[in-house]
């Protein structure tokens, strides 16, 4: 009696999880097992707080459409933040605006009067309090509450985004576009009682807010995977 090998293995690391995908199996079979795993197993680590994950597919040659298909499956778990998809050659495919810029991970709390500045993309594990600010040349992902100010694309990138577990900022800024806080009585989120991650991005020069689960489709519309 043969034992079926697992096509997807999960390894815990200091700041998240690594999903390792089988390099040789049929892609549709791989996607099917990934869907089944997300729905029926490993619930102790795949449910609950937001967690950053890196996807490694080894020597497999994935098309842009297949990468997007994997992202769509992973986004069905609202607490998973896909940080990277990479092959054996370590060509990283980031689903943020500056695709080939690594993400720096930091943790702590940004208090009133403090300004955290970072080159490239930032994954911040903690809260940004009112009066506190984060300024990045790339994207900003906050696994915590954003109640202060965040400025992504500070050197002019209009494709940068700002994402947070709880998005209630005093100000959002992407490139040179600045959002105003909601008027008194306005809901800051269309789903204020939900804890799923949301992100801000620019569309036709205007600030927009959407669920993080929809980011893969946004990136596909912007053709960010072209040439990768």
UniProtKB/TrEMBL annotation:
Domain called Septum formation inhibitor MinC C-terminal: residue spans: 107-209
Database matches in Pfam families: MinC_C, MinC_N_1
GO biological process, one term: cell morphogenesis
Superkingdom, taxonomy of origin: Bacteria
Residue ranges occupied by any Septum site-determining protein MinC N-terminal domain in the UniProt entry: 8-85
SUPFAM superfamilies named in the record: Cell-division inhibitor MinC, C-terminal domain
The keyword Mitochondrion belongs to this UniProt entry's keyword annotation: no
Keyword terms, alphabetized: Cell cycle, Cell division, Septation
Subunit relationships: Interacts with MinD and FtsZ.
Function comment: Cell division inhibitor that blocks the formation of polar Z ring septums. Rapidly oscillates between the poles of the cell to destabilize FtsZ filaments that have formed before they mature into polar Z rings. Prevents FtsZ polymerization.
HAMAP family membership: MinC
Family indicated by similarity: Belongs to the MinC family.
Protein name: Probable septum site-determining protein MinC
């Amino acid at each position: 009696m043969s034992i079926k090998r697992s096509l997807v293995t999960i390894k815990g690391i200091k700041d998240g999880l690594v999903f390792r995908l089988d390099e040789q199996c049929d892609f549709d079979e791989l996607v099917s097992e990934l869907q089944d795993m997300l729905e029926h197993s490993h619930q102790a680590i795949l449910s609950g707080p937001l967690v950053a994950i890196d996807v490694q597919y080894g020597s497999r040659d994935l098309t842009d459409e297949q990468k997007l298909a994997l992202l769509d499956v992973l986004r069905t778990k609202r607490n998973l933040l896909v940080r990277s998809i990479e092959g054996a050659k370590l060509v990283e495919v980031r689903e943020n605006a500056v695709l080939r810029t690594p993400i720096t991970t930091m943790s702590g709390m940004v208090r009133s009067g403090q300004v955290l500045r970072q080159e490239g993309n930032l994954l911040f594990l903690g809260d940004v309090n009112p009066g506190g600010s984060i300024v990045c040349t790339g994207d900003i992902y906050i696994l915590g509450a954003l109640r202060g100010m965040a400025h992504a694309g500070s050197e002019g990138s209009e494709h940068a985004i700002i994402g947070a577990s709880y998005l209630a900022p005093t100000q959002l800024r992407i490139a040179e576009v600045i959002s105003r806080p909601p008027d008194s009585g306005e809901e800051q989120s269309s789903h204020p009682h939900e804890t799923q991650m949301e992100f801000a991005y620019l569309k036709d020069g205007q600030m927009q807010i959407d669920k993080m689960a929809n980011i893969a489709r946004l990136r596909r519309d912007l053709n960010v995977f072209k040439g990768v």
